Amino acid sequence: METSYDVRIWKTEVYAGARTSTHTVRWTVGGKPWREPFKTAALADAFRSELVTASRRGEAFVVGTGLPVSMDRAEKNVPWLALARDYVAMKWPHLAPNSRRNTARALTNATLALLATERGKPSEDELRKALTAWIFNRRAQLDQAPDEIRQAAAWLERSTRPVGDLGQASVVRTVLDALAARTDGEPAAPATVQRQRGVIVNVGEYAVERNLLARNPITAVKWRAPKTVKGVDRRVVVNPVQARTLLDAVGEEKPSGRALVAFFGAMYYAALRPAEAATLRKSNLSLPTSGWGELLLETSTPAAGASWTDSGARREERQLKHRARGETRVVPVAPELTALFHQHLRLFGNAPDGLLFRGVRGGQLAESTYCRVWRKARVRALSADEVASPLARRPYDLRHAAVSTWLNAGVPSTQVAEWAGHSVAVLHQIYAKCIVGQDEAARLRIATALGGGT
User: DSSP state, 115?
Assistant: First the structure.
């Protein structure tokens, strides 16, 4: 390892672009120039300060990396698993339950791609379970895990590559390729790949903050992620007749179908997300005897699983999606939905805490319960060809149908975005293909502009 004491450190350069600024630290080691860009002045100043401090205390710099010996040594010696575990500890208090679970899954895939040895390796299933359910889950107590899980965790502790290996482009590509494949070897969904890559990019930024890496190696590698399909497939969208037929079929499913008609109705008529509908309380309803009413939405309860929530419940109430804590959203209630809510309250009432929809034995409504009812209702209500198609395959597709209905009815997109809890840009991006009947009108307008030809 060639080192040098001939170090010169320059002032940080700032490039102010149209959207972002880049802060670049420049220095030389043995006459060899080095530069490191950062997104913020704070990160650049911190990195430059480390270089200046090392130079002033007479520390040698490594010519091959441009780093002080201490930073170079730290970069090479910290195991990946230790960094990933520290990252989870840092992020955990600030993440929603589903984000915690998704982070654990991404780190599990990355860790299995960064193994330094195969000797004595436990089974793939044991390693995945040890990582996802125990090592990367802050609520789990590893000392209480089964013996095979503790043995797998101990093997992982001594078998992951050092963080410094991420400086090799081939290693980074191995990690990214692992994110792009499912456990069965089939390609992962593009949205899943993008989400998991985002987690690993953040881990790279965290390593830079800790001076374990000079720059983020994940963003430095040119790797093309699968393209994400962002628009709604119009084949999933039901028309009003199909929607009413499905709601009738839900009411015929025993034992819990009748109590879920208004639940699914809230998704179709008011475009609620399942997590929002599951949180509805009587206090959220503002209903006349008949006609149009309103919903005042305050919270949402995404289903993440008891092991990922702070409370230990499967669902944990949080702020509305894309909104700050305490923000609300007002949604109109169509006359049909007003009638469904009144019917539900008359037949089933509400829980002591006001919740409208509950599990078969009380408590929170489980995702498995309403998904099972929906699957059976589709078979009952739709033809064999429709059942085999994507039409309303998921309860969430009722929300897509609601938003599509509003747009096709001519409701301004700004109003639809407000009711649905989207930005206008996202609304246009997701639902552009679901706006039907516009082609002929557009042709007529163009023909008029061209002089009236048809």
Answer: B
Q: Is the peptide bond before 255 cis (omega within 30 degrees of 0)?
A: yes
| Residues 6+ positions from 265 with CB-CB distance below 8 Å | 247, 336, 337, 340
Distance CA 274, CA 254 (A): 20
pLDDT in tens, 432-453: 666 544 555 566 667 777 875 5
Q: What is the CATH number of the domain that holds 286?
A: 1.10.443.10
pLDDT digits (tens, 9 = 90+) for 355-393: 999 887 777 888 889 999 999 999 999 999 999 999 999
**Rounded (10°) CA dihedral 176, 181, 182, 184:** -130
Within this chain, do residues 124 and 166 fall inside the same structural domain, yes or no? yes
- Does residue 194 share a domain with residue 117? yes
Question: Would you call 272 helix, strand, or coil by DSSP?
Answer: coil
Sign of CA pseudo-dihedral 419, 423, 425, 430: negative
Q: Do 360 and 410 fall into the same domain?
A: yes
Residue ending a domain, choose from 76, 93, 113: 76
Global pTM value: 0.66
